[in-house]
What does this fold into?
Amino acid sequence: MSSFKAMRRTLEDLEEHKRELVGTLDRLLEQGKQGEGMIRNLLIDLHHADTADVLDIMDSEDAARVLGLLDMETASDILAEMEEAARIPLLELVDPRELATLVEEMPTDDAADLVGDLDEEAAEEVLSHVAPREREEIKDLLVYEEDTAGGLMEIDFVAVNQTATVDEAIEAIRRAVEEVESIFYVYVIDADGVLKGLLRLRDLLLSAGTSRVADFMKTDVVSVPVDMDQEDVARQVQQYDLAAIPVVDDRCKLVGRITHDDIADVLEEEVEEDIRRMAGVGDEDLIERSSIRVAGNRLPWIFIGLVSALVAGIIIDNHETILEEYIVLAVFLPVVMAIGGSIGLQSSTIVVRGLATGQADLIHVGNRIFKELRVGIVLGISCGLTVGLIAWLWKGMAVLGLVVGLSMLSAILVAATLGAIVPVALDRLKADPALASGPFMTMSNDIIGLLIYFTLATVLLHTFGVAG
It folds into this structure.
């Protein structure tokens, strides 16, 4: 068995084990006190991320009971890893004082995220039981929008003055090791807290203890402002292959840092968000428990599809005469509409992904559109010839094959071009480009495809005087 297959088998086994563990935990919870000790033993060697996965798929009340059996440090780690959709209803079941203790165990960024999940009244109650210093730190982070660098950062980091020595920098690391999780760099600041450089741990270890950090610190530091969108932050981290990135305010004062694990979460979140938007499903659908409200959230997108279908119906109705005369045209209607929509979806998906990763900026937009146009020509000619030939041989009408083939070619060209242009246009208008890959592209491609089909049919069939 190859290493890939072995890894896949291992992952599948792990997922199966998690599902079995949910059933086991449910049975042990039914046993009351007798089963509680066994639950602790079952979870003691399980990584907190795996335990979070298990609680994600459990009933909220049962998950809260399991969480209450664990020590506070372990429980806080698990809560930080849980999916928001599963965590929010669970938090409603936990006593505010216990939540406050859990919050104090967490890094500041995770603590702020958890408090941010609560409604305003519940958040205030929990924070009232948190130690003053941690409470102020969390409140400072809650000021920032959730999807910005400020909302993503943690305010625990190691920083030394530019006049410090190597020995002083190492001592600063020792003092901070209990508070700061995963120390990758030591940041160098001036007396006003302005970021001046950074030190890699390797450089500290290899330098003389009396050396001044300013003599060998790295000065070309990549940093991000507090109001930068999290997608742009992720691009910076990827671009420069950073383990952590410092966050500065409008005066370039160091206020926090964002680590690579948070960036991984951002990338996953953005991909999931794009997929949901392409399908016309919002984030609120994941956490909303009311079926009526979920239906209400989706209704606007369903309405767009309904309008699209009605417009398509109007177009067909307006061409009733040509359809009555050449009823065979109805046979190829679904083909023209479906293929155009598929090509448009492919093009827009590629461009949306390029925008998300920074690969489709202004410099590359023209090239991307031209490339999609070339791809559309190749696909259009291939599909047009194939379907046109089928129409000709099937129905014995050469002009029908010409109509279907040219319609297919035109619809694919238009769909590929729109698929490349529309996401970029939406992005420039500060709208989510992922919207282009959902109902919007489907609607536009269906309508345009129908108009092209009936226009060509009317012109060519009447021009060549083919009998119906």
Summary: The longest helix spans residues 362-395. The chain is about 70% helix and 5% strand. The beta strands are 159-161, 185-189, 195-200, 224-225, 244-248, 254-259. Confidence is low (pLDDT under 50) at residues 1-9.
